[in-house]
Write a sequence for this structure.
């Protein structure tokens, strides 16, 4: 029996207050704007604003804070303690109006590129637009999309300051992140112009790229860094991008020309419209310690990615470019999911599986895909997911083969979690 979903009216009212505050700052207008801002679905934002306890979480508040630039107070939102903004900041200040944004953009331009002749052109090049567009931003009332574009190109600028004049023009970001340094190097070489170019090359969405380049915790992962580096021809030292160890470039003594570098980075997977053709390693589903290590989790940055892949067979698969980094191929290696019916997953079958990121596990793992792949230190399990106990933080896994016992696994022991989306190759000798 499914547990009843809890909705707290008081919490819903406080999250609605947050939403109205962002609206007053012209950061969002509708729920779909908030969804786009934080990288969630509109349905999930609707559940958030209705007080659904699956979505009114600390991690969701952190996402909103990172994306909006405002320090919303989780104690207030979740328990009604304190004020909406951290530090007791009043939320009653009148919005200064969009007509002042052009003046603040002009001030920012003076700081970033100087106030000498040609500053509009220099700022336009930095943001990735034309000089005419920048002139219009200053003269007219730019909208929220303009603010987002400026923030994407200049992460250190404060969105609250741009929108309403609140606080300081620049936020404390500490030293520039190694990934940001790599991005600026690519810009200086003419390989990319904006973060959108990085998103297209890597297959990640623009929000994830922006957070990673800004050094946001949870976004600078082994997988992101590997994908980023592969997209640009293995140019960078991944140990440096992850931990700041060594030098930025994998071969700092290289004398390759800018033209040769651009040509090398233009090599990318075969594209089919909005889809991309990738060669993925095929990981066996077997209880053998260490299976998938280096690809699915705990990647060794001293090891070449091709060397890691060489340990497994591979095959081409056509994927949507936007989400291709979330997919992995697995090969069935035991009879745990065979019951003699059409639901069986047989030895030799190749499965296309989509990863569920750890930060999304709290939202509930029971979904439209019943079969899952669970990666632990013990190996790779292919099973049917029957229960996700969010209070105990465990999952219950069922085998279709009556000879195998069901399992309960603590999520803290799970290294990676995948939904089985498609059977892409059937081993007919099994039938």
């Amino acid at each position: 029996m499914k547990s009843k979903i809890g909705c707290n009216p008081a919490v819903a009212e406080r999250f609605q207050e947050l939403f109205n505050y962002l609206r007053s700052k012209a950061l969002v207008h509708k729920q779909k704007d908030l969804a786009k801002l934080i990288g969630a679905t509109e349905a999930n934002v609707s559940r958030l604003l209705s007080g659904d306890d699956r979505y009114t979480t600390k991690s969701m508040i952190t996402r909103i804070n990172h994306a909006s630039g405002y320090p919303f107070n989780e104690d207030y939102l979740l328990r009604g303690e304190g004020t909406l903004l951290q530090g007791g900041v009043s939320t009653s200040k009148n919005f200064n109006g969009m007509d002042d944004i052009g003046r603040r953009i002009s001030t920012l331009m003076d700081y970033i590129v100087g106030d000498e002749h040609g500053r509009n052109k220099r700022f336009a090049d930095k943001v990735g637009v034309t000089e005419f567009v920048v002139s219009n931003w200053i003269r007219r009332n730019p909208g929220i999309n303009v603010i987002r574009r400026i923030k994407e190109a200049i992460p250190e600028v404060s969105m609250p300051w741009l929108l309403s004049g609140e606080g300081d023009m620049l936020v404390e970001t500490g030293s520039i992140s190694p990934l940001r340094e790599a991005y600026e190097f690519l810009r200086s070489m003419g390989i990319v112009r904006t973060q959108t170019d990085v998103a297209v090359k890597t297959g990640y969405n623009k929000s994830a790229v922006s957070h990673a380049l800004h050094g946001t915790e949870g976004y600078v992962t082994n997988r992101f860094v590997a994908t980023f580096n592969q997209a640009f021809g293995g140019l960078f030292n991944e140990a440096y991008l992850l931990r700041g160890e060594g030098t930025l470039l994998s071969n700092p003594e290289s004398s390759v020309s800018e033209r040769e570098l651009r040509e090398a980075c233009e090599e990318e997977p075969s594209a089919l419209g909005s889809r991309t053709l990738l060669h993925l390693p095929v990981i066996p589903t077997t209880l053998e310690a260490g299976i998938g290590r280096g690809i699915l989790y705990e990647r060794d940055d001293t090891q070449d990615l091709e060397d890691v892949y060489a340990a497994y067979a591979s095959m081409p698969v056509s994927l949507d470019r936007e989400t291709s980094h979330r997919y992995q191929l697995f090969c069935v290696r035991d009879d745990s999911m065979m019951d003699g019916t059409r639901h069986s997953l047989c030895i030799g079958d190749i499965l296309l599986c989509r990863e569920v990121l750890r930060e999304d596990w709290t939202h509930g793992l029971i979904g439209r895909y019943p079969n899952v792949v669970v990666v632990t230190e013990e190996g790779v399990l292919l099973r049917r997911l029957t229960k996700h106990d969010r209070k105990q933080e465990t999952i219950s896994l069922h085998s279709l083969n009556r000879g195998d016992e069901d399992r309960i696994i603590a999520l803290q022991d799970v290294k990676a979690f995948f939904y089985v989306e498609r059977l892409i190759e059937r081993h007919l000798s099994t039938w």
Remarks:
- Residues 89-99, 255-260, 266-273 have pLDDT under 50 and may be disordered.
- The radius of gyration is 24 Å.
- The longest helix spans residues 9-24.
- The first strand starts at residue 270 and ends at 272.
